[in-house]
Specification:
Elements (H helix, E strand, L loop, with lengths): L28 E10 L2 E11 L4 E5 L6 H9 L6 E6 L2 E2 L10 E4 L11 H11 L4 H14 L15 H14 L4 E5 L7 H18 L2 E5 L3 H7 L2 E6 L2 E6 L1 H6 L4 H6 L4 E8 L2 E4 L2 E4 L11 E6 L4 E5 L5 E8 L3 E9 L2 E8 H4 L7 E6 L5 E4 L3
Helix pairs in contact: 2-3, 2-4, 3-4
């Protein structure tokens, strides 16, 4: 069983003895107009990003979008071609990694196999010349905070994947960094351990107030853990916003279709809104498009409803039970299938192949240009 972090545990101490000291707090971080090119590929294309002290920001995006390059540039593991990396008002763009006061947790754990969990956590303190007693006390404190107080003498091969990752997290935090960098830290773990560990990381990060940049491919992780989520594309930020805003009010079609599930419905601009699925939707921003213009409306599955109706225009093609809701697939014509989230009690009455009608009821709609 994975141990839970004690959220009432004391904050890190500055020495072996004495009352717990408050967390030093996170640093303000700014990436200013960063460029980085590898051969003919531009990994960062004028990327600008700011993190407030103590904030957790997650970067999402398709493979090759530049999110890992941005994190490595902040860590000092990549040298940018142009731009500035500023921490608490100081440009550290040319400062070596070892002097940047940052902790980093990798996907692969990167623990020293010949060191115990306790010695792995204390390694950074040993490099900094802290005394043995101080190192051991700090390591014991961090292992306790991540729920591994009884595992300090074990070696990495004696620990599960989730336990190894928590040791890696404790090691990164042992030096009391003002910035924590997480590079796909949970992707190698199974689903249950990922869920437990992401909750624990968020609790610990909030408790310590460490500014954190988190790179992940997992949208659920990003949306559930971060204060703000940035979606990257081709080395730039398409949008950065709190998770609810990013989901409910995507700024671009790319963000809308990358984050979560989205239906793309053919529509026509009419007076006061759009006509979609034979419904007139008012109070929809058509961005100055003229009446009669063919467009697409992007709508979340929860913004649609489905009901059985004789000779209806749609046919139920599938149902996926999700607990309180069921995702219903509906074929509306030969090349248009939509997904509708319906209360499971209602969806239970629908059968595969049944004729249905689909309507747009939500107002969180995004109008975009029609594409082939």
């Amino acid at each position: 069983m994975t141990a839970e972090i004690d959220v009432t545990a004391s904050r890190p101490k500055t020495g072996v003895t004495g009352a717990p000291a408050p967390a030093t707090g996170g640093a303000a971080v700014e990436l200013r107009n960063l460029y980085r090119t590898f051969g003919t590929t531009r990994a960062l294309d004028g990327l600008s990003l700011s993190l407030a002290p103590g904030e957790m920001v997650a970067l999402l995006g398709p493979s090759g979008c530049g999110k890992t390059t941005a994190l490595r540039a902040l860590a000092g593991m990549e040298t940018v071609d142009a731009g500035e990396i500023v921490v608490d008002g100081r440009d550290i763009s040319r400062v070596p990694t070892r002097r940047r006061d940052m902790g980093m947790v990798f996907q692969s754990y990167s623990l020293f196999p010949n060191l115990s969990a306790r010695d792995n956590v204390a390694f950074g303190l040993r490099v900094r010349g802290r005394s043995g007693g101080d190192r051991n006390a700090r390591a014991a404190e961090l292992l306790d905070m991540v729920g591994l107080a009884d595992h300090g003498s074990k070696y990495p091969h004696q620990l599960s994947g989730g336990q190894q990752q928590r040791v890696a997290l404790a090691r990164a935090l042992a030096i009391e960094p003002r910035v924590l960098l997480l590079d796909e830290p949970l992707s190698a773990l199974d689903a249950k351990v990922r869920l437990q560990l992401r909750e624990q990381i968020r609790l610990l990060q909030t408790q310590l107030g460490t500014t954190t940049l988190f790179v992940t491919h997992d949208q659920e992780e990003a949306l559930s853990m971060a204060d703000r989520v940035g979606v990257m594309r081709s080395g730039r930020l398409e949008q950065i916003a709190p998770p609810s805003e990013l989901y409910d009010h995507p700024a671009t079609a790319f963000v809308a279709e990358f984050v979560g599930t989205m239906n793309r419905l053919p529509a026509t601009v009419v007076a006061g809104g759009v006509r979609v699925l034979d419904d007139h939707m008012s109070d929809v921003d058509v961005d100055g498009r003229a009446e009669g213009t063919g467009v697409h409306v992007l709508a979340r599955p929860e913004s649609l409803t489905v009901r059985a109706i004789a000779h209806g225009p749609g046919i139920v093609t599938g149902k996926t039970f999700l607990g309180g809701t069921t995702r219903v697939g509906v074929l509306l014509d030969e090349d248009l299938t939509v997904l509708v989230d319906s209360p499971s009690a209602d969806a239970a009455t629908l059968t595969i192949g049944e004729a249905v009608a689909v309507a747009v009821t939500g107002h969180q709609l995004l109008v975009v240009d029609a594409t082939p």
